[in-house]
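--- STAGE predict ---
source: upstream dedup step, 1 unique chain passed
mode: sequence only
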Amino acid sequence: MRRWLIGALAIGAVGCFGDLKFDENLPTSPGGQPPGSTTTLGSISAIIDNEAVTAPLQTPAIWRNGGFGFSGVNASGVERIISLSVRLSAAGTYQVGGSNFPTVSYLEREGSTFRRWTTTPKGAGSVTVSFLSEYNASGEFSVELLPDSATEAAGFTARRFMTNGIFNVGVSR
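--- STAGE serialize ---
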């Protein structure tokens, strides 16, 4: 009888309090997303030498074994690919040439011609990951990009400057 009474009280208590995983008092806007969330795979955008470029992701960002990275593609006209990667365990600001090796790359493809600029230990700038979860990430960056050796050999020797960079991406683990 005593076990039956304890069981009945436990079932009644669960029924009284409803679903404890849902907080109906949580302030949200109708249809709003939590910080850092995205309904698509996300995008990355920046001003590259005074020209605004937005590149949606074709696959989610990856965050595994301390590595975080992704690429976005803008295929209107000259195809432009912006890639970002950094070693991290949590949100933070990471300096180009620092111990966490943030790398930002910019690739232009025109027909069969490729030109690539990237941060190297000689470049400058930083990447800030301001929000990072197992599902979403967001942040900002500004960097100086140097041409790779093939781009330089093709006569494109000027550095590129990527400023006001922002990203809001879905994450896969």
